Amino acid sequence: MADAAEVTHATDAEVFAALPAVLIDRDNVEHYRGLLARRLLINRCAACGYWVYPHRPLCPKCWSWDVVPTQVSGDGFVFLCTLVHQERDPDAAPGEPVSTAAVELVEQPGLRYLAPVVNCPPDRVRLDMPVRLTWVDRDGVAWPAFQPSGPIEGGR
Ligand SMILES: [Zn+2]
Asked: How many A from CA of 104 to the centre of ligand 1?
């Protein structure tokens, strides 16, 4: 796995400038630096291999401080999904809800990442549906999203 230094040359100042609405700190800055390079990085314990998310500097399993931003495969399944009704999403049809899911990543049971589900009608999102990472642009920044990685059940 690549370490974060190889991901992008964005400086901390560039990360802050690109994401002014995000609360960025020393524990998550590499995650957001990765997003700028369209790479989903999650801290992983170098001592025991446990994925540490939400971002923390300490492994909750073995208490090691040696956690390293590491790229995940982007494969997972829908663990939980909700429909968000709002009018700000440029990809959503007027009045249509946006699916937002907690996606359990294949790297580790319980490792869940919250992101929208795209390229799938909201009423077709199912629990345990296999999904794959993709990216959506918002105000010039790429954000993680997930899309079905197989046939959509009950698809049109
Ligand atoms: Zn550990």
From this structure: 20
Q: Is the pLDDT of residue 34 over 50?
A: yes
Tell how far the Cα of 8 is from the centroid of ligand 1, in angstroms.
26
Domain boundaries, the chain: 4-71, 75-148
Pairs from 45-48 (Cβ < 8 Å, separation ≥ 24): none
pLDDT, one tens digit per residue, over 66-104 is: 999 999 999 999 999 998 887 666 666 677 788 999 999
Q: Does residue 8 carry a pLDDT above 70?
A: no
> What's the 47 CA to ligand 1 centre distance in angstroms?
5
Distance, CA 141 to ligand 1 centroid (Å)?
32
State the distance from the centre of ligand 1 to the C-alpha of 125, rounded, in angstroms: 34
Q: What is the mean pLDDT of the chain?
A: 89
